[in-house]
Amino acid sequence: MKQSTLYTSLIYIITVLASLFIFVLLLGFDLNGVVALLLSIGAGVFMLKKYNSRSSSTKTGSHKLPRLTQEKEAFYTSKGLSKEDIQYFRKTMHKAKEQVMTIETNMSKSGKLKAIENRNNTVGLSKALFKEIANEPNRLHEVDQFLYVHLPSLSDLVNKYVEIDNHKAKSKATYDILEKSAATIDKMCEQIVKDYVEFKEDDIQDLDVEIELAKRTLDKKL
Questions:
Q1: Cα(103)–Cα(123) distance, integer angstroms
Q2: Residues 104-132: what's their mean pLDDT?
Q3: C-alpha atoms less than 13 angstroms from C-alpha of 72 in its C-beta half-sphere
Q4: Which of 61, 19, 15, 12 is nearest to 37 (CA)?
Q5: How far apart, in Å, do the first and last CA atoms of the chain sit?
Q6: Cβ-count burial of 94 within 10 angstroms (0-12 exposed, 13-18 middle, 19+ buried)?
Q7: 3-state DSSP call for residue 169?
Q8: How many CB atoms are closer than 10 A to CB 169?
Q9: What mean pLDDT, rounded, does the chain reach?
C-alpha cells in the first residue's frame, strides 16, 4: 500500500514538473502567457487521465468478476451460502478458471506438455471438476487442495516450463531442469486426477450400492 501511494505521488510530481516545463517551453516560443498556461494545464490533465485509465484497466482486467445475477444469487443461497460465502466462492472460482485457461494455453505450446496432458486428461478433468464445484458450492471445502495448491502450482510450473523452453539457446543444465520440471508437472497432473476421483467418490459408492441392489433383485426373480 505504501509503495502504491509513493508511486502515485511520484506520478503527480512528474506531471506537475512536465506541465511547468511545457509552460516555460511555450513561453520561449513567445506564446501568450494565458494560452501557454492553459495548454500546459491541459497537457497535465491529459497525462493524469492516461495514467488513471491505465491504472484502472490493470486493476480491473482479468480479475474483474462477472455480474452476479439474481438467479445465481438465489442458487447460492439455496445451497446455504451467506453473502460473504458467495463473494469468497466467486473470487475463488474466478481465479481457478483463469488458472485452468492458463494451463490449457501453455500446455498446447509444447509437445512434451501436450503428451503429459493427453495422458492425464488434465485440462478436461480440471474443467469437469470446476463444473462440479460450481454446481455444488457448499462442497468447496472438499477441494481445498485442488483449488489452493495443485491447480495454482501446476499453472506456475507450466508457465515457467514454457518460458524456459522458449529460450533460443539451451545448455545441458537447461535441458536437465526442463526434464525435472516435466516430471513434476506429470506428477501434479496425476494428483489432479486423484482430486477428481475423490470428489466423485460418493457417486461411485452410490452406483456400487445400486448395482448391488439390482443384483439382489435379479437373484430373487431367478
A1: 7
A2: 94
A3: 11
A4: 19
A5: 75
A6: middle
A7: coil
A8: 5
A9: 81
